[in-house]
Amino acid sequence: MYINAIGYYIPEGRVDNAHFLEVNGLTSEWIEQRTGIRTRSKAADDETVDTMALEAVESALPTLPYDVKDVDLIVAAAYSVYDTVATTAHIVQRQYGIEGAKAVYASSACSSFINGMEIVEGYFASGKAKKALVVCSEKNTYYSNESDPKCGHLWGDAAVAYFVSAERQSESDIEIEDIFTEGLGQLGKGPDGVKLRPHEDGITMPDGRDVFMYACRYMVYALNQSLANRGLQLSDVDKVICHQANKRIVAQVAHQLGMPMTDFLNNIEELGNTGSASAPLVLAQKREEIEKGSRVALVVFGGGYSCGCMTVKV
Asked: What are the beta bridge partners of residue 163?
């Protein structure tokens, strides 16, 4: 599998830490010390996950080596949906007139993007698709409660779009070497670790400590499993991109792996936790800074719980 083009969209709005002192009583210093976040992205009121997804797709088109109408599979992978019937995949299909393509929606909390890529892998393996588009758009602020001192200060908004093919399309393609995912609903707080119930209290994280502990443990596990699938060692990895939930989680993962923080790429300081869009967004933003031929591992952990890893050769 190959990534042929990447697009992304980050809203212009920013909310700095000082905003939360009057909202939930947390100081700027407290937030940055415990999360690494200084500001977070915030979509405008008239922006939705659908409009942001379309912006991300549009930004990928100038580098796409084939016509967007050649896509035969569209996967929307996210959790902060705007409409549970008219999915983002169908919105994209209609916008670009992509006739004949399959259009599906998948969610596994903050692991959704990696799961979406694995769905593409399955369609390719079955011969039912050859060119796919994975869109991942999260408007967390649509559901978050800023007054919640446990997690109201964490969330940001963003979208990414990845065009993927079964065969190489150009020399600039990024090779996908392995995709690994696993559901972990049986562990710890599991489905009660992080919740999004729109008619109740939006996004909540009742036990952040439980989430932190399992995220650190199972992002390392997912990375090791993915490398083992390819017969690779940790020393074969040049850069790691973790789900951008908390900078301390990234630091703990680095510690467990015995890797320097300089080998980890992040954007949480400016954008906050952009959900399942976060890890692929970092790759999109930092791609030009990564040396050609480098191996990059995207490792994620989602509420529910779930984990995943995608290793790529840039």
From this structure: 5, 133
Task: Could you please state the CATH topology (level 3) that the domain comprising 2-165 is classified under.
Answer: Peroxisomal Thiolase; Chain A, domain 1 (3.40.47)
Q: Using the CB atoms, write b or e for 130-150: b if 16+ within 10 Å.
A: ebbbbbbbbbbbbbbeeebee
Rounded to whole angstroms, the Cα distance separating 204 from 87 reads 23
Backbone angles phi, psi at 276, to 5 degrees: -70, -10
Q: Which of 34, 37, 36 is nearest to 14 (CA)?
A: 37
Q: Give the pLDDT band of residue 71 (cuts 50, 70, 90).
A: very high
CA distance 67 to 26: 49
How many CB atoms lie under 10 A from the CB of residue 199?
A: 5
Check if CATH label 3.40.47.10 holds for domain 174-313: yes
3-state secondary structure (DSSP) of residue 66:
coil
Instruction: Assign 200 a pLDDT band (cuts: 50, 70, 90).
Output: confident
Peptide bond into 221 cis (omega under 30): no
| Backbone Cα Rg of the chain | 18
Q: Give start-end residues of each CATH 3.40.47.10 domain in the chain.
A: 2-165, 174-313
pLDDT tens by residue, 88-105: 999 999 999 999 999 999
Q: Mapping DSSP to helix (H, G, I), strand (E, B) and coil, where does residue 108 land?
A: strand
**Going along 31-150, which residue ranges are E strands?**
39-42, 73-77, 102-106, 131-139
Instruction: State yes or no: pLDDT of 206 exceeds 90.
Output: no
What the block records as the tokens of 265 is 């790429």
Cβ count within 10 A of residue 29: 9
CA atoms 253, 111, 8, 208: torsion sign: negative
The residue-averaged pLDDT of 219-242 equals 98
Q: What angle do CA 20, 23, 29 make, to 5 degrees?
A: 25
Residue among 230, 229, 233, 205 at smallest CA distance from 301: 205
Q: List the beta bridge partners of residue 242.
A: 299
